Amino acid sequence: MRRTPSVLFALAAMTAAGYCIASVQAQQDAATPAPPPAYTPPLKGAPPVEDTPAQREALAQWKAKAEQRLEADREAHNAVVTPSYNFHYGKETPFTPGNVQVQGEGFLQPGAYPTADYCGTCHQEAYSQWRHALHSNAFRTPFYRTSVNLLIRDKTRGIAFARHCDSCHNPIGVLGGALTEDSKVDRARFDSDGLTCTTCHSVVSLDSTNGNASIKMGVPSVIVDEKGERIPGMVPFDMILKHPERHSKAVMHDFLHTPEFCAACHKANLPNPLNDYKFLRAFTAYDEWQQSKFSQRNPLTFYTADFTTCQGCHMKRNANALPDYGAKNGTFASHRWLAGNTAVPFYYGFDEQLKKTIEFLRAGNYLNVDIFALKRANSDDLIAPLGKASYSLAPNDAVEAYVVIQNKNIGHSLIPEVRDLYEAWVEFTVKDDDGKEIYHSGFLKPDGMLDPRAHSFTNRPVTDEGEFVDNHKVWTIHSVAYDNTVPAGRSVLVRYQFRLPANATGAVTVTAKVNYRHLRQSYLNNIFGKDHPAYPVVEIASRSRVLKIGDNAPEADDPADNPEWMRWNNLGIALLDQFQYADAVRAFTETVRLRPTYADAYVNIGLTEIAWEKYESARLAIRRALVLDPKSARAHYYDGLLQRRAGNTEQEIADFRTVVDMFPQSRDARRELGITYYQQNDNPAALEQFEALQKIDPDDLTAHYNLSILYRRMGMPKQAAEQQAKFVDKKVDPGAPTYSLNFLRAHQEISTESIPWHMHSDLDNDAGSPSSGR
Amino acid sequence: MRKLRLIALGVCLIGLPTMCRAENKCAWINEATVSGLLGGEAVGAVAEQVAGQPAVCEFTQHNESGKRTLRLTVEIAGDAHARLVASAQICGADAVPLRAIGNEALICAADEHKSQMGERLVGRVRDQVFTITISTTLKNDPILTRDEIKSRIYTAAEQVSGNLF
Q: For all residues of chain A together, what is the average pLDDT?
């Protein structure tokens, strides 16, 4: 009993501080790293050092021994692991439902991977950044373990199914045969390092862009010999320092710089072997990037930008603080992979990583928030754009505010990937002169839960019972009740309705913020129970405007505001996505008025009118765009659609060909051109387009469907059957909407979120909108 | 044969509730991992949780001059935080809170007697309280030094808490 108070004190300190004390960072970085071995980089352009015959002989002997040792270890490892391994999907596919493969026969022992400590001797900056980054913590975090443990404990599934997740989160474990009921593998050797240096740097080929770890892991090697042959395992540092070019050849494949490499894991699907249902796309940041302006592969984007890869944003070069022989001119490509995850650094106490993550989220001009317009109740007049228009407000006015949020410079959706767990939302407030709240949507409740009627950029996956999949049991997902994420480059209109107080004087301030939290509160509760500290909420972007009671005159722009033509253009894009075609055309017409030589504004009118089935006026708009910019691939694409409708096949083909020539990786143009050729019974030409399309997007349903027919026609029954099977597996389950409707019926508080054109209101108005906010 | 089985069952029953030597089916850490942590081939035994008693996994690595042990207990508690506090009382003022192990965790020395050096870690994942003790009776153990035990018990705790999440 005597000892109790000190224990209680320690625990109280932990709880009060929202944890404590001996942080993991301190535990992991306690020792100051020893200086790396001495090294003088070769002069630029200097030829590699030539080995003497004796040195070559010594290296050959080293290589032979290393290979012998690796093979002996691998054999011994397999002898222990294989007998009790659960080959649930057959002996030939030990890693299914993941797509990961490994060089050589059988499982690869975890000891084959040179350790991060070893790499960190010379790459201290990279090591330090990696240790605090998501990749090194890909497996061990509670956020991941809670989720994968549910799969492991699932009565009809089990640990063999977890290979689906761990192929990306813990590939050393998967390839080492650790994922089985009676594991014989020492997991302490790799679990804490997640994706260690020699996982990414040992990949020898990308199998496809199918995701789910569609890579082939090579036998890890940090150097090649003079013939370019890989030497397995760790080697003395002087061997590397003498031949840095051979080290690079072993560990730095060109594909490491490509988005396709990231796609291996930043694209995931839920295959039938996992869910016993059908193929479902889980997420694909890669395809979102490919469809964005940053890829320069898609002619249909609303705006253009310089080519930027995933690495261009998430691995920016920075001055290195620690010695690193991989640095160039004192800078090193970031191995922090800064993105949106604040939860992991918060949990582990990686303060620097957390700080930099928050800075990253707030930097980069990723989003634009525009309080664009006002509308008084019972009036059709739009007061827009705010800041330019004059208007007056009176006490007791019921006012509708148009907030346009543009996903301006993110190379993927707002938010990407696991959008059932990550949470971004709009917080909208109206306050009087004294700061008193008049309206508030998107607040956090005392229990940390988000106002259920907030406008959130999330989705709601549901089971076949119409239940929300709250805890990321992805294998139970059968449908998605709604997905309100904003694709790259597009905009969304969020409408709020509130009433000015009857006694209002002076002014009110309206503020719209986009907040982000990693992770949703109920998921955090699933992980920790309810007694966990509040996780960080980051304001990514915001905009305020002061609305005077009485007359309001135009005001000066904020430097962060978009130009006026772009504000109208973004409104048009948002209205188009909400199927408000007439209003969208009006908005795009304003863009034309403000920027009459901007061909894309006419294209925007044209494509809206195509969606609206007003082909004649669409034709006029597209023609005007082509006059302004005869080389506009975007205009040619929509012209192709219009020419098809008019029966001008020759021109239709010419248009789509123009687009394909300019953008060979345009999936839309390939698809449409394939359809055109198919309709013309030009089977070889159609086949060429659909095969090209499938290389760009292996999941394109049109390609699967048409290829199955074309292959059959061309006497290729096996390929036809394959495509047919893929089409059947990937096409939408006609029953899925029922699951979504069951969910929405039971959750009226958010059911309006599934309707593109909806209002957030606390008024009982004629439209009968349910109340929201507070 | 039947007689042999009965004898085996009898031995087992006599051994309860301490330890019934069974297959290595510890749900929270496997034998291979503990072998790595203890620096040699360890043999594990498991006792399931019964009323009032936690589940116990005990792994021993015998050596000519002594033995190394990793003992793990896991139990579900109504007020798990209070149970953790109670479990940690044995540490007294020496308890050092640890970050990023489960919901909360503490570590302290566990030198039961002069010839044994060890560390104890008490942690919680939601309503599950666990304790891990790693100890050695080897004099001047070349592998399990005090610092090594601290480092390895942390690794063990990551394994255990990870599996409890």
A: 93
- Which one, of A224, A256, A218, A264, lies nearest residue A240 by Cα? A224
Q: Label each residue of A279-343 as H, E or C.
A: CEEEEEHHHHHHCCHHHCCCCCCCCCCCCCCHHHHHCCEEECCCCECCCECCEEECCCCCCCCCH
pLDDT reading at A12 higher than 70: no
Q: How many CA atoms lie within 13 A of A410 on its CB side?
A: 28
Q: Nearest C-alpha of chain B: how many angstroms from A530?
A: 9
| Sole residue written with tokens 């494509």 | A607
CB contact under 8 A, A186 and B36: yes
Euclidean distance between CA atoms A650 and A653, whole angstroms: 5
Gap between the Cα atoms of A67 and A60, Å rounded = 11
Of A126, A125, A129, A109, give the one whose Cα is nearest residue A233: A109
Minimal CA separation from B67 to chain A, in Å = 20
Rounded to two decimals, the ipTM of the complex is 0.90
At a CB cut-off of 8 Å and minimum separation 6, what does A574 contact?
A404, A490, A491, A492, A493
| A115 phi/psi in degrees, rounded to 5 | -80, 165
* E-only strand ranges, A145-277: 203-206, 215-217, 221-224, 230-232, 267-270
Task: Closest CB to A187: pick one of B24, B102, B159.
Answer: B159
Token digits for A413?
């959706």
8 A C-beta contact, residue A178 and residue A63: no
CATH number of the domain enclosing A516: 2.60.40.10
Q: Do the bridges between strand A215-217 and strand A101-102 make them parallel or antiparallel, or are there none, so unpaired?
A: parallel
Orientation angle between helical segments A701-713 and A683-696, nearest 10 degrees:
140
CA distances from B62 to A600, A724, B59 (A): 77, 60, 10
Give B160 to chain A, closest Cα distance, Å. 11
Are residues A277 and A284 in contact, defined by beta-carbon separation less than 8 angstroms? no
**DSSP single-letter state for residue B92:** G
Domain end marker among A561, A580, A604:
A561
User: Looking at the domain assignment, is residue A660 inside a domain?
Assistant: yes
Q: How far apart are CA A644 and CA A588, in angstroms?
A: 25
Q: Quote the strand ranges of A395-476, DSSP E.
A: 398-407, 423-431, 437-441, 455-456, 459-462
Cis bond leading into A415, ω under 30°?
yes
Find the CB nearest A20 among B92, B97, B165.
B97
Fold of B22-164: Protein Transport Mog1p; Chain A (3.40.1000)
- pLDDT for the residue numbered B52: 81
> Do A497 and A598 have their domain in common?
no
**Per-residue tokens: A598:** 């901007």
Domain count, chain A: 4
Domain definitions of chain B by residue range? 22-164
| Residue A97: cis peptide before it, omega within 30 degrees of 0 | yes
Residue A368 three-state SS: strand
A24: chain B residues, CB-CB within 8 Å: 99-100
Task: Report the predicted TM-score, pTM, of the whole model to 2 decimal places.
Answer: 0.92
Cα distance between residue B75 and residue A28, in whole Å:
29
Whose tokens are 């096409």? That residue is A731
Q: List the single best residue of A25, A115, A187 to mutate versus B (max B Cβ within 10 A).
A: A187
Q: What is the pLDDT of residues A570-610, one digit of tens each?
A: 999 999 999 999 999 999 999 999 999 999 999 999 999 99
Question: Cβ of A187 and B90 within 8 Å?
Answer: no
Query: Quick count: other Cβ atoms within 10 Å of Cβ A375?
Result: 18
* Model confidence pLDDT, tens digit, residues A714-751: 999 999 999 999 999 999 999 999 999 999 999 988 89
DSSP secondary structure code for residue A447 in this structure? T
| Burial class of residue A142 (count of CB atoms within 10 Å of its CB; 0-12, 13-18, 19+) | buried
- Tens of pLDDT, residue by residue over A512-559, are 999 999 999 999 999 999 999 999 999 999 999 999 999 999 999 999
| CB < 8 Å to A20, chain B | 97-99, 104
